[in-house]
Amino acid sequence: MSSIVEVTHLRKLFPVKKGGLFDRQEKFVHAIDDVSFTVERGEVLAVVGESGCGKSTLALTLMGLERPTSGVIQINGQNIATLKGKEIQVVRRHVQMIFQDPYESLNPIMTIADIVAEPLKVHGLVKNKQERQERVIRALEDAGLKPALNFMHRLPQELSGGQRQRVVIAGALVLEPELLIADEPVSMLDVSIRAEILNLLLELRQMRGISIVMITHDLGTVGYVADRIAVMYLGRLVEIGPALQVLQQPHHPYTRALLSVVPVPNPRQRRERVILQGETPNPINLPPGCRFHPRCPVAQPRCQETDPMLQPVAAAHEAACLLLSSG
Amino acid sequence: MSPSPPPIRSFWRTFRRNRMGMVGAVMLILAVLIAVFAPALAPYNPYQPTRVTIDDIYAPPSPAHPFGTDDAGKDVLSSFIYGARVSLIVGFFASFISVVIGGVIGISAGFYGGKLENGLMRFTDIMLVIPDFPLIVLLVALTKPSLLNIIVVIGLLGWTSSARLVRSQTLSVKQRKFVLRARAIGAGNFHIIRRHIFPLVLPLIVVNTVLVISLAVLNESALSFLGLSDPTKISWGQMLNFAFTRGAMSAGAWWALVAPGLGIVWLVLGCTLLGQGLEQVLNPRLETHHLSVGSKMVARMMGMKEKPSEVKAVSGD
User: Which domains does chain A have, with CATH numbers?
Assistant: First the structure.
């Protein structure tokens, strides 16, 4: 089984301000800093982390919408960072994206049929109207909008949030992609609809063998959907491993802190909460050493000096913390 | 597939209730009808040479000449009806040129950004600070005063406000998520502009066109009044010019001045009302504009008995 996505040493810096006349030093926001991971075929990988940690930049870079500063992103064995024009179009056909806000991601003056058919037109995939119609109907019904004919001639504002998100999913499915990148696909939806959309994604994974990279900050639902979880902090992966293991035996203190504040259904089962102190450090001036040490509840003096790398802690489970190596 | 009819139908439903816009539309349509059917409506053909006696010069309104006659003994009503043609032709075509240039510059500057935007917008700024009218006068005076030249000159100098407006709208549309989604699908720049940017900028362009028409009509009239019009075409500005320079005032012939003057006011007012009406309908944020006290606001003020400023704040959200 080969992996569909292979990311190695990916780095994305955003210049903040050009140096002045005397200050030639340019400053950068380190949105993604030396991130490596793979996504296997048919796998759901969840990327979690607080806002500003680089999750969404990671999604855009995977889509080829942002050029990486350095590093390699291989999708189906092709490095999308070096592809140009036509070639990137071909790769893009296999990678589609689902956006966070279904109220904003649909053009308000296009009908649902037009929206779903747009990818087919852009890629010139269908020869005649009838074939296009058939594929649009199939995509809509696969996305759970049945019967499709009831929706095709409506405008986005006539649909509910959950229905719109299904339209976005249909628009991605119509190209029959191998990889879906879902950037917080349910965070804007009502809680009652979230499970439906997540189930839909899981169904698609099973029916079509689609791999999914799901960006989220909701640790409550990742255990339900993800096969593996990657935890990001300030542009770097701090822990990655099988979902259950990461949730039940988190090794990195940041993961532990995140998990300790997830609400538990049983109120008697109180756990000790780790409330992180302070703000996320400025991603322009990163702290030296481990970038989590200013907020880490178990930080030691050496954490200020050495920047930890990911290291194996269990089978297929890695974490980046200095404390793991010496006990 | 063609754009779906529902938005147009709902637009018409809202627009029909906008009294200002409807009045403007009726005024403009009336002017267009008069211009189109001029030969049928005018009692005389002003381009035909006529035999006149001394009594026909500046003759006051009479059953034979309802608007009186001018300095050459011609029927003012007929000239007035034919004059509408020139004003409207110049207005429509010049504003068309302006809006096309402004739209192209505005969309490309807003969409592509960077150096292109910088260059185009600095150029727009330069054009914006040059006083339009003196330059128009200069250019028309240097070229042959034909209808085509007047249209081109007015059109080439009137695009700056459209360019700025279209650019700002493009900037805001570009930021919306469905443009990012189109990119993620793999759509190229041209496709995105055609399918996602242009249709959403179009309402603004339509409104702007209507407002630019009134500007072009005014410019044309001013040019003709200064004697820079095509001498072979009767226009309202030219009628004013002849009346003004050929003693209509001293002869007490007010009718030779009032008819073309009111014609210009009619057209400009019609365009402005229609343009502002369209703006209100197409841009919901303008609904509680400080100048427009709509029926809704009045009803709120009556019901709430609060200070107007507070009412505005409430109705603004």
Answer: 3-324 (3.40.50.300)
Q: How far apart are CA A55 and CA A48, in angstroms?
A: 7
Q: What are phi and psi of A318, to 5 degrees?
A: -125, 150
Assess whether pLDDT exceeds 50 at residue B291.
no
Query: Quick check: B6 contacting A, CB < 8 Å?
Result: yes
Q: Within a 10 A sphere around the Cβ of A109, how many other Cβ atoms?
A: 19
Considering CB atoms only, which of B178, B187, B199 is closest to A105?
A: B178
At B306 the pLDDT is: 43
On whether the CB atoms of residues B260 and B240 are closer than 8 A, the answer is yes
Mean pLDDT for chain B?
A: 83
- CA-nearest residue to A94 within chain B is B185
pLDDT of residue B249: 79
**CA A255 to CA A22: how far, in whole Å?**
42
Residue type at B224?
S
- Mutating which of A87, A100, A122, A158 best tests the B interface, going by the most B Cβ atoms within 10 A? A122
B187, A122: Cβ pair inside 8 Å? yes
Provide CB contacts within 8 A for B13, sequence distance 6+: none
Q: What is the DSSP string of B91-127?
A: HHHHHHHHHHHHHHHHHHHHHH-HHHHHHHHHHHHHH
pLDDT at B293 over 60: no
Q: CATH class for domain B16-48+56-286?
A: mainly alpha
- State the pTM of this model: 0.79
Span A16-50, pLDDT tens digits: 765 555 665 667 888 888 899 999 988 999 999 88
Cβ contacts of B180 on chain A, cutoff 8 Å: 65, 99, 105
Query: How many residue pairs from chains A and B have C-beta atoms closer than 8 A?
Result: 66
Tell me which range, A189-198, A269-278, B58-67, is most confidently predicted by mean pLDDT. Answer: A189-198
The residue that leads in pLDDT, A304 or B269, is B269
DSSP code for B21? H
- Domain chopping of chain B, boundaries: 16-48+56-286, 287-317
The pLDDT assigned to B309 comes to 46
B187 in contact with A, Cβ within 8 Å = yes
Cβ separation of B187 and A118 shorter than 8 Å?
yes
* CA closest to A123 among chain B residues: B186
Residues of A in contact with B4 (CB under 8 A): 109, 111, 114, 153, 155
Alpha helices (runs of H) in chain B, residue ranges in sequence order? 6-16, 19-36, 38-41, 76-112, 114-129, 132-142, 147-157, 160-174, 177-185, 189-192, 198-225, 236-245, 255-282, 295-304, 308-316
Give the pLDDT confidence score for residue B192 in this predicted structure: 93
